[in-house]
Amino acid sequence: MDINAIVDRAKNVVLKPKETLEAAKAEQPSMQDLIMYVAIVAVPTLIGIIIGYGVVGVGAVMVHFRVPLQWAVTWGIMQYVLSIIGVIVFGYVVNMLAPSFSSKQDQIQATKLVAYASTPGLLAGILYIIPSISFLVLLAGLYGVYILYLGIPVFMETPEDKRIIYLIVAIVVYIIIMVVVGAITSAVMWGIVGSPFSGVHI
């Protein structure tokens, strides 16, 4: 899948999720293809964080600050890498849980589902360029949950009566895993480099 195809797929996932998911069911991309898809789609989040917090800054006229650029770059890269890892981990969670909800286990299909469901939130990460409206990224993430809901019966062949509970359990398990991963990563990073706010300019 080349970059143009990835851009087209991401656009269609956002604008025509139901049709796009159904059309993608028969496709058999490799895990590398899916990781590349997420890596491209996550670029707006990387750019948004670096520019928004390292260049534009946060706050009003009297209380305005910018994270030192090197920290903004570090933060953006961490978020970028964790976004890719998060999709892989969530894909494994969705696939692992499949038999418990009368669904078909298929790692590629599960990862494909999660990659497409993550698309709105990752694309909306460009809004971090203006930190004051970055809450909209959360709304885009909620749209991603809707795409996940649409895709579970398509990719995992989940019966209708199991779809909502499958969705809820998968999300809860994913949140727990990512909280643990995030806490460990943050502890390691700040333990090595120290506090990022020691050089904040007001």
Give a topology summary.
Layout: H1 3-15, H2 17-24, H3 31-41, H4 43-56, E1 58-59, E2 64-65, H5 69-97, H6 107-124, H7 136-155, H8 163-193
Antiparallel strand pairs: 1-2
How would you briefly describe this protein structure?
This protein has helices at 3-15, 17-24, 31-41, 43-56, 69-97, 107-124, 136-155, 163-193, and strands spanning 58-59, 64-65. The chain has 202 residues and is mainly alpha-helical. The protein has a two-stranded antiparallel ribbon with strand order 1-2.
In words, what does this structure look like?
The chain has helices at residues 3-15, 17-24, 31-41, 43-56, 69-97, 107-124, 136-155, 163-193; strands at residues 58-59, 64-65. The protein has 202 residues and is mainly α. A hairpin with a 4-residue loop joins strand 1 (58-59) and strand 2.
